[in-house]
Give the backbone structure.
Amino acid sequence: MEKISNTALIEQISARFGEQTFEFSEPIGLLTFETSKETIIDVLTFLKTELGFNFLTDITGIHFPEAKLPIGVIYHLHNFRKNVRIRIKVFLEDEHPSIPTAFVLWRGADWMERETYDFYGVNFEGHPDLRRILNMDDMVAFPMRKEFPLEDPNRVDKKDFFFGR
Amino acid sequence: MESTRYQKLISHIEPTEMILNMGPQHPSTHGVLRLELITDGEIVKEVIPHVGYLHRCFEKHAENLNYQQTIPFVDRLDYLASMNSSHAWVMGVEKMMGIDGDIPKRIEYIRVLVCELNRIGSHLIALGTYGIDIGAFTPFLWCFRDREHIMNMLEWASGSRMLYNYIWVGGLFYDLPVGFEERCKEFIAYFKPKMNELNELLTGNQIFISRTANVGILPLQTAVNYGCSGPMLRGSGLKWDLRRVDEYSVYPELEFEIPVGKGEMGTTGDCWDRFKVRTDEIKESVHIISQCLERLQTDLKRTTDFDPRAKLPKKIIPKAQDFYVRAENPRGELGFYFITDGKTEIPKRVKARAPSFCNLSVISEISRGVLIADMVAIIGSVDIVLGELDR
């Protein structure tokens, strides 16, 4: 059970995908790179079948309002045999962000993608059951986006006056 | 609007089938979980879980508060194992600050000690309530009686019974109270035979075995495919424990085994195996606790000038980075994913990867075609905590 080093991983990934994978970095030892939504399923399939990243730890989203591509989808994968982890990021535009679903590779992606859709409004193309999961069904906003405040600013019952401030 | 799988399932129901709502107030769903069952008589054709009744916007709060202020929120994620959750959070922040090497050994040992106590408490709830789901009332009372000792000890140390806010970034809230180690030793001596009694009463009970063996079989491939972790994954036969794999905190210095499901009573990965893994883990935790106490009473003894808050950082501003920290909770791999910008005390993004969330998503796969009574057995064996699932 020898470990694969990050440099070896970078070599194999860039030999396969070339320019389509970029921004390689290793924050605290965890290999991170970016790709585009056109290649993400190919990259994930390659990682799963040929490099042995068989465990999908997490799918999540991120919103950077100032960036050109503000919505990010972040995948964490894990290789059980070699105990190596990897992080893949895809950035999307924020009007109608959409990305192919990873449900074809991992059934566990089902709920994780539903959660990302629920909070960031990312449309996972081909997902069989894309409904809200934690918020109520008739909600219209995507609450983890940065323009959505923690508390309703129009509330009148939480003025400082009522608390003697 | 194209129709989802859920809409198709509901609209294509046969005349002989019935939709049955189980929960959110059903006692055996362990919280506010709603399961929509499509049933044909007693047979469950399809299970559709509905979650989110306990959603409290943890991630949004974490993006508006600093790291120390978030610890009480972290405690409320998995409210049965608050120590373990805050330990994971604190380890992540310390690693990002680069101060994880400066923490004194005594503090690390106290953290592991309280975490393992909390793990026993959490597993006792899982075992006891599982008994009551199956129809055994006595083990439930026995488990709660023993857990009460743990609650009292942790209350003595931290001031509260369930939501402790005891482990802080860079240290602890207080040192252990004088006499805690001795009290803990007494508890261990008291608890060891009690665990054997529980095993005789419940684990080896023929009625219990008939209800759980060969029920809800989760093959290893399916468990990995769905992202299951913790006792769910170990019950399916994979020796996988982050305390050994990642070797965080002082776990490399401690001796313990990793119990796995072997299919002794039926098939590997059935409900009985998951139950057995939990009972065995309690034994291992007891073993870890006695080793911690040994160290805390000898070379890491309490001194009068020991200050558990000495290493507390004044301002927690980690540099700009991405970091994913994970730890072995009683329910599986709890992960926190931080994105920081290096300028403020407030993280840009915090994502909690809840083990219960992934563990529950497998339920509709493993409970197709079972009886409604077995459905209850399967939910109990997954051991979900809705506070963590819904965040």
In short: The beta strands of chain B are 18-22, 34-40, 43-50, 167-168, 171-172, 321-329, 332-340, 349-353. The first helix of chain B runs from residue 5 to 11.
